alanine racemase
Amino acid sequence: MAWTAPLRLRLDMDALAANWRTLDAMSGTAACGAAVKANGYGLGARRVALRLAAAGCRDFFVATWGEAAALADTGVTLSVLHGVRDEDMAVARAAAHARPVLNTPDQVRRWRGAGGGACDIMVDTGLNRLGLSAGDIAGGLLDGLTIETLMSHLACADEPGHPLNERQRAAFASLAGKTRARRMSLANSAGIALGPDYAFGLTRPGLALYGGVPVPALEGRIAQVVFPEAQILQRRTVRAGQTIGYNATWTARADTEVAILNLGYADGYFRGFSARGWAVHEGERLPVLGRVSMDLVAVDVGTASALAEGDWLAIGYHLPEAAAVSGMSQYELLTGLGVRFG
Ligand SMILES: *Cc1c(COP(=O)(O)O)cnc(C)c1O
């Protein structure tokens, strides 16, 4: 007999595709790729990649060769953002569907020494995370390499007024023609909203594909994709004066009808939702009462009196709002989604 999980992720895959089309249109003449690292930001890299490939996406980004291997049979072309360590070389050389994004002079030498082949290059323009320096490029480090995409990454794209955005854009633009790269790429989701000067030849959204809204300019244009749902394990009446949950942080002022849901911080429903999150039933918000536990959370059933053990409830997970109330980033709310969802 098949076992069914008491919590599930409903994914709106049409919304995912619509978000990609929106970001593609906002990218103007630039191609629009998709970051599917971290298992497609927690949604399942395989189903995300296949759906976006069907929508027309041609450029996919993962962090590691393990993530690339997991997508080897999907037919999509991948760039591996963390490049190649010694330990990666055998796998990287054999991977017809994936190429490395080379980040350091050692990575460039390693790739070149093994015979090279198509690669991408990350250049640092101010994030000071991964990437070659402009000086490395001027010094001839890349001469003779077959470079598909020269890319850089923005530090403050979600702060549209931050002066570092324009400084990075200008530094990156000044590298045009300095390598034999076929195209250039700078913008993540928020970077796309900074305008056409940031699009170059290829954009690399992640968060906004999955319903994240990093900047006001994307509000109303990006649709929610992820809808967690959890089953009611018990319904109970909590009498006036009684408390709910660990540390008794919530006290009933009047007799209260409560549903205990099969969802907790081990599923990525973090403790920041304690007393602040909500479930939804027929348009009504049912507030979280007290602390979120590892596997359980209590909600006020309110006037939804027909709710019973075994019923399913949608969990409030509109990312900008859920991030604001929980204190987590929208990225963490996606990538934290646990493995217990059915
Ligand atoms: C994760 C990542 C992206 C996608 O960023 P979002 O903010 O999720 O749109 C793009 N480029 C690089 C290099 C990344 O690491």
In short: The mean pLDDT is 97. The longest helix spans residues 13-26.
